[in-house]
Design brief:
Blueprint (H helix, E strand, L loop, with lengths): L13 E19 L5 E5 L1 H5 L2 E12 L3 E20 L2 E23 L2 E20 L2 E24 L3 E12 L3 E12 L4 E17 L4 E18 L1
Antiparallel strand pairs: 1-2, 1-3, 1-11, 3-4, 4-5, 5-6, 6-7, 7-8, 8-9, 9-10, 10-11
Length: 232
């Protein structure tokens, strides 16, 4: 949730911490070597039915010239399906965990506008286990990669209460190409506490081969973000 709850107005450092939930869906293609990839088109409500655990948080330190920021998001999805194979009942357990970690900084070229340079690191683990009377079988794919991105953020405090924020960046590295966009609106209840609502979209096109396994992840993650911010 990349929006400063309170802009720096002196030479001193201000700090903003935000706990948030990203109510996002997923669409795109995910696949292994020898396949064309499996299409994915899941809404937030469909993903929420299989959600085991999630957490997300953002922290930044701001002065009139410089911004340092970090953002961490974790999600764990799991589901169990049952089917028939060769007249036998087979239970399939699927599990996916994803980390997205961002670390970087920026230079405030204007009170309301910041140029950003940072890194974003992805960790994705997927696994499936099938069980039947004949026995069991399991497989797992783990991939991690990082990108460097550049971008900008516009923040504006309106009438001491409302905050408007626009953020965008593009990057590459491990990914062939990735981009992120966010439009956010916040309300300051006090100098300490703010509430934020945003629309966020992250598009990642990754294709990796470590010599042992091939993995394709060409996905768009988008949806509403809700956050609670603390400034000190």
């Amino acid at each position: 949730m990349l929006v400063a709850a309170a802009p720096a107005s002196s030479d001193e450092w201000n700090y903003n911490a935000i706990a948030y939930a990203w109510l996002s869906g997923l669409s795109g293609t995910m696949g292994l070597e020898g396949t064309e990839g499996q299409p994915v088109d899941a809404t937030f409500s469909q993903l929420a039915e299989n959600l085991d655990f999630a957490l997300a948080g953002h922290f930044e330190a701001v002065n009139p010239d410089i911004v340092f920021l970090t953002d961490i998001m974790y999600v764990n999805l799991g589901s169990t399906k049952q089917g028939e194979v060769a007249n036998e009942t087979v239970d399939v357990d699927f599990d996916m965990t994803q980390w997205i970690i961002e670390l970087g900084g920026g230079y405030r070229v204007h009170e309301d506008f910041t140029l950003l340079l940072a890194g974003r690191y992805y960790i994705l683990d997927t696994g499936a286990t099938s069980t039947s009377e004949a026995g069991g079988n399991s497989g797992e794919v783990s991939q991690s990669w990082g990108d460097i991105f550049i971008g900008g953020r516009y923040n504006k405090l309106l009438k001491e209460k409302w905050i408007v924020s626009l953020r965008g960046d593009i990057g590459a590295g491990g990914s062939d190409f990735a981009w992120f966009g966010e439009a956010a609106l916040g309300y300051r209840f006090t100098e300490l506490i703010s509430a934020i609502v945003a629309y966020r979209i992250l598009d990642v096109d990754f294709e990796g081969d470590d010599g042992e396994s091939y993995f394709k992840y060409d996905m768009t993650q988008s949806g509403i973000g809700l956050g609670l911010g603390f400034s000190f």
